[in-house]
Amino acid sequence: MEQQIKDLKEKLANKTLKSAELFSFIGRLKDSMREGTPIVRNISHINIEMLETYSFALQKYEMTTEDKDSQLRAADWRESIDDFSKLKEFIDELQKSELVTNVAWNVGGMAIYDIPKPEAYRDFVCWNINNVLDNIDLFDQV
Description:
The protein has a two-stranded antiparallel sheet with strand order 1-2. 65% of the residues lie in helices and 6% in strands. It is mainly alpha-helical and 142 residues long.
């Protein structure tokens, strides 16, 4: 586990982390918890929920920079995010800091927004991911 976190953090530092890699890591965390053999001893559901939220934010960045917004469907959010209030809080935080504009929520529960400064948005999302990984790593050492 320590190596997986180190690899993710290295990709964050190099700005090469992809949302698919983070979703895969989250999937392994969830599976290990379901099986009763957590790969991180003291993993918190809050950490997982935050990583889910940040993964979607990173995916939104990838789609925006690749001009593929239409590929993200509301069903994609529902399958991977357990707590929509965390997503709402994060989108609100992004909007207050002016990292996103024109926020709208459609009936399917999907946030639609523009990213006027993609690099600043990505840096903020990656900073948040890194903080959660630091927290997971710290608690695994306890």
